[in-house]
């Protein structure tokens, strides 16, 4: 039973060696228990491969792929090997039978217990080399800080248990709780220095920017911040940074967008962050690190209860380099995140504490201290859908297929109701593209619930904020209808009325009937044109040409479901594709400037059409 950390911290060389032995010997029974197995992206078709393959070669050169992941994706795991995971790559294994069968539904804080109870007898983790007999758990102290000591205790009873470390000189050395002695490990493999898996950044669209701007009004100065991963979280971090560093431009954007100033006054604020924020997030993202280095995460906390009480009474009593500004459980992200972490000054590094996920995600075992530290906490997470009672649907579809996992979302949502002044903020895009059709993410019923209705709190779409805490079912349904896309409001309300939750003659006010992408673009386009809102607020791994092509190919993919849609797309490409010279750079990058076959001529036309529809310029 081989336990590997979530995400980045897997000891890939050791894992591949164990897997190779089991694959060669059917008498060996190998179970790998982990979460979020990272795999380099693969192109879904030949046209996408023209864009993706060179990017993949550039970003992942030197990264040792996990052999079990490759075989699992091909449904080719040997019969004597199982891979159990409590968090899957979002949407990446929806149709993989092995992954779906062996998914373990568990809160992040309970995953270590599940692994120990399953009988784990080997743990293998990538670690950062240090000096004087010290190592760093770096990117993944999350479960290891609890599991490794538990294995040491188990071994005292005579049970087999082995702890292996894989040294990677590319891994940033993180101190505080992540700084451990070498003798925690039974053996160390020196793998030299190899590429850390980079997670490419997503573009922050206008809807994402709108969500981020709304959320940035709900964060209180002197408070606590937790965020997730992805474009919506990037948008939140970027909007908070804009509020702090360019308050005039930020105010103009939120006023034009129509933010709820009353709720901002009650829940958050409109001024820069003079007291600063304290970060307490299971995941240390590039956005959070940027806020730390930009002077927003400056409220430092002490792990001594008496000292923390004194800091609350007199923040000015902070002494020198005392205190922690950011607690995190794990990190993963683009290459720039790892570069920045490696280049931290000693003073910066001392203010970041990578620690146990139980320490970050919950209150148990340290409740008095956590309550003192987590003032006015804002726990910000993303959902796929929100149902008509305010429950969040974040990890599983209605048919039971798992998209990702619960992670820490439930813990943070529950904690928001336990802490004085805390709020849970669920972000959800108002619509999605499915099978070439636009569908609403504010639904009356949906998939498996991740955060139940009794923990409903704040929900944010690009069209506004719904404050659901303490509201009746009628008030919740109406508030959600008001932030839904206007194309779906009537159908949603019809279901609410049929269920008896809203009276039959109720009608939304006209002010809530303008929730359309066109209206949103009109409101935010001036800020976009002025350079206030950019697609990649924390930079991009792609060139501008590659960014344009990525958007174009995503546009094609959304409109290529079914033969009718495909036929219409081809007809539009044949009739309306602009001249090739308009997109010479993009076509050269795709090696389609001089198409050599009928297939390539059609591909070129499709790319030209998509580039014109997504607003690319020459």
Automatic annotation (TrEMBL):
The keyword Membrane does not apply. GO terms for biological process: acetate metabolic process. Keywords: Hydrolase, Transferase. It comes from Glycocaulis alkaliphilus. The keyword Calcium does not apply. This is Putative acetyl-CoA hydrolase/transferase. One of its GO terms (molecular function) is acetate CoA-transferase activity. PANTHER family: ACETYL-COA HYDROLASE (PTHR21432:SF20), ACETYL-COA HYDROLASE-RELATED (PTHR21432).
